[in-house]
């Protein structure tokens, strides 16, 4: 109990301090200008008034980001596993994976929407594209960092490529894989929001990205703040789930989770 309090007390203190600073600024510097920076109470009131729409939008973004993230995990790990089997294949394909990270997703998103339509599928694909590279990169790094002695031991026993991959390479790469998953967790939500920005028509339906555009168009800043907070908490939720799962898998043998 005391250990838990000591662990989370600094975070709670910082959160309280930020809320107090926010409240103070809203009451002094931005007094009478709530359209620029509304106070925390105004934001809570706006979220309460618009709770059904905000809740439905959060669930929509959660579904889109989760599906894009899961697809990125499956494809990212698979691509990295295939590339790790051949240096020639890695040199041939990996630069194109890098392009996914270097090409601005905002510039590519309209094309994705044009190809796949103005619906959830486009948002999921955009979330996938923006979150897959850290998974590929970190998984490939982990697979390439396996102990040479262990590789030689498996070679002495004439193990097949599949046996080496499943029983040696992937378990050894697990810390790096989890690091990539942590990075991509937040990116998947960002990708979903960007996708909703592109397909959103400014109406009162859709995910958080559409709701943010709608609130901005109405100059409803308090609700806009609340929806931004919801999107931020959604990304934090993804990260916390992945981080907790990683700690459970690594806690008995890897220093990062001991």
Fold and architecture overview:
- This protein has 258 residues and is an all-alpha fold.
- The protein folds into two domains: 1-31; 35-257, MetI-like (MetI-like fold, Orthogonal Bundle).
- It is built from ten helices and no strands.
- It has helices at 2-27, 40-49, 51-83, 87-102, 105-116, 120-144, 148-156, 161-199, 208-217, 221-250.
- α9 (208-217) packs antiparallel against α10.
- The mean pLDDT is 86.
Give the CATH H-level superfamily of the largest domain: MetI-like
* Helix share bin: over 70%
Task: Please name the CATH architecture of the largest domain.
Answer: Orthogonal Bundle
H and E order: HHHHHHHHHH
Largest sheet composition: none
User: What fold name stands as the CATH topology of the largest domain?
Assistant: MetI-like fold
Distance between the termini: 19 Å
Q: Per the principal axes of the C-alpha atoms, what is the gross shape?
A: globular
Structural category: mainly alpha
Count of DSSP E strands? Answer: 0
Question: Short description, anyone?
Answer:
The protein has ten helices and no strands.
């Amino acid at each position: 109990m005391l250990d838990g309090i000591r662990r989370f007390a600094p975070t709670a203190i910082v959160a309280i301090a930020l809320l107090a600073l926010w409240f103070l600024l809203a009451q002094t510097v931005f007094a009478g200008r709530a359209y620029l920076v509304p106070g925390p109470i105004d934001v809570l009131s706006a979220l309460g008034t618009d709770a059904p729409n905000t809740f439905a939008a959060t669930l929509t973004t959660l579904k889109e980001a989760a599906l894009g993230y899961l697809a990125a995990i499956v494809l990212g790990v698979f691509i990295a596993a295939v590339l790790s089997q051949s240096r020639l294949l890695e040199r041939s394909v990996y630069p194109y994976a890098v392009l996914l990270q270097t090409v601005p997703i905002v510039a590519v998103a309209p094309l994705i929407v044009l190809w796949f339509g103005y619906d959830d599928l486009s948002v999921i694909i955009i979330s996938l594209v923006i979150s897959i590279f850290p998974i590929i990169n970190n998984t490939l790094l982990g697979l390439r960092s396996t102990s040479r002695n262990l590789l030689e031991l498996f070679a002495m026993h004439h193990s097949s490529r599949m046996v080496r991959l499943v029983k040696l390479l992937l378990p050894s790469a697990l810390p790096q894989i989890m690091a990539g998953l942590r990075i991509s967790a937040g990116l998947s939500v960002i990708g979903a929001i960007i996708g909703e920005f592109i397909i959103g028509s400014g109406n009162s339906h859709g995910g958080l990205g559409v709701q943010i555009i709608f609130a901005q168009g109405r100059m409803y800043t308090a609700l806009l703040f609340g929806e931004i907070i919801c999107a931020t908490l959604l990304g934090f939720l993804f990260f916390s789930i992945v981080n907790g799962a990683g700690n459970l898998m690594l806690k008995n043998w890897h220093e990062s989770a001991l």
